[in-house]
């Protein structure tokens, strides 16, 4: 059981959701974050003030999956999020100690993707 | 004051000109609310661009093409560079020629801005500036000449009070052509592309309505009866459109929508634009109710097609302008306007004269806009890459964000080297 964290471009968020859905990964949360990961800074000018935008908007997906679903989830994230340009994002996979589905009290494998298997 | 200038008329027209100018930033607000967050500024800036280039082109040549002489297709060049546009009254009016020119300029600006609604979220800003400059002369000024400047439509008897031909049908059918040439946004039909701020839309529509009192109320070029009638009709017609739009929304989705309401205000104002000074208040209310139906139908139908006419300029302006122009042929009443009757008051020929305009203006606007954009595309691409479109036009074309937070922004002081590499991790 792992937690797969994918940080991707906001404009690719819809493509990632689509790819995850096709990979039959159910149960995902998503949040807007700001990050910096090596892409060139964007320069913006507001009247006399010029700034380098060091942080870019990103979207962070968190998907808790059973071990069998780790690779499909990673593949889906890559497929949906890749443009080939710097700034496509990162995927982190971390071990997950416990998961509980609040509605039923199911734990661990019963509580994460795949649903109902 | 030179002889023939009326101070009361001039006072009202000074105010009306300012009212119409406000409509362009109001339209910017309305349009900006309808697009996604990342394109807010670019969308607004297309309207600001019209304030810049359409005004300059109008002074240089557009005004002359529209209002010099009475050639049947285009005007002359005697007023190019505002030559001989002075304090003397414009023929047929009691206001200074200079003020007449300024009032008409604000129409050219708002109309040029209207067309941008078809190409937002994808067209590059540079080519849009070129397009706006050419369009304001080749389409707007020509149609304005046909309808107002002594051109063939006016000569053959078409009635157009405040711009059903050049403004509403001109922009609406040009928008359709522009959408076809520039083509759909990359996400169109694949993702939900939602308005990001409905409050902007309502505020923009409210300010447009406010400005429209100058637009229609000023198109009599006086503080006389025609202006009072058009002014009052500008209150009544959109109100009726709103009521009917509410009903249509309720029937279709059981909820009255805010963006629908903002749209209805514009549809109503558009419909009364050509007819304002020609029909009585009762018929103006009927027109408001009627005009809601075809525009509503087109707005519901259009997104199911592959035509990404993004902000529905065709439905709101082209279709409602078409309805308004034809309605004059039915309900014009010499008892109110002192000029001509329509079918209901015994002159069926007027309807024919209106119908000619309702065919000619859309055909010309569509064809010329198509040609202008295809012409520009020979020299430079009209739209950016998919990557640019994904990032958003604001950052790509303007280097600004509408809702910049400043988080993570590093100030570049004049002393600091803007190219300091140590702030940037090596992308390789």
Notes on the protein architecture:
The complex is a heterodimer of chains A (117) and B (428). Chain A has 117 residues and is of the alpha+beta class. Chain A has one domain (2-111): Alpha-Beta Plaits. Chain A is built from two helices and six strands. Chain A has helices at 13-22, 70-81, and strands spanning 2-8, 29-35, 42-46, 49-53, 56-65, 89-95. In chain A, the strands form two sheets. Chain A has a four-stranded antiparallel sheet with strand order 2-5-1-6, covered by helices on one side. In chain A, strands 3-4 form a two-stranded antiparallel ribbon. Chain A is elongated, with a radius of gyration of 17 Å. The relative contact order of chain A is 0.32. Chain B is mainly alpha-helical and 428 residues long. Chain B has one domain: Ammonium transporter fold. In chain B, helix 4 runs antiparallel to helix 6 (164-182), helix 6 (164-182) runs parallel beside helix 13 and helix 9 packs parallel to helix 11 (313-331). The longest helix of chain B has 32 residues, at 348-379. Chain B starts with 6 loop residues before the first helix and ends in a 16-residue tail after the last strand. Classes of the chains: A alpha+beta (117), B mainly alpha (428).
Descriptive keywords:
heterodimer, A: 117 residues, alpha+beta, Alpha-Beta Plaits, 4-stranded antiparallel beta sheet, B: 428 residues, mainly alpha, Ammonium transporter fold, 15 helices, disordered C terminus
Quick summary:
The complex is a heterodimer of chains A (117) and B (428). Chain A has helices spanning 13-22, 70-81, and strands at residues 2-8, 29-35, 42-46, 49-53, 56-65, 89-95.
The strand count of chain B comes to 1
> How is the CATH topology of chain A named?
Alpha-Beta Plaits
Q: What pair of chains forms the biggest interface? A: A-B, 26 and 24 residues
Number of helices of chain A: 2
User: In terms of structural class, how would the helical and strand content of chain A be classed?
Assistant: alpha+beta
Distance between the termini of chain A: 14 Å
Low-confidence stretches of chain B: 422-428
CATH architecture of chain B: Orthogonal Bundle
- Kindly report the spatial arrangement of strands forming the biggest sheet of chain A: 2-5-1-6
Give the CA-CA distance, first to last residue of chain B: 72 Å
Determine the mean pLDDT of chain A: 88
Strand content of chain A: 35-45%
CATH class annotation of chain B: Mainly Alpha
* Reported CATH architecture of chain A: 2-Layer Sandwich
* Number of discrete domains of chain A: 1
CATH superfamily of chain B, by name, is Ammonium transporter AmtB like domains
Class from secondary-structure proportions of chain B:
mainly alpha
| CATH class categorisation of chain A | Alpha Beta
Principal-axis shape of chain A equals: elongated
Number of helices of chain B: 15
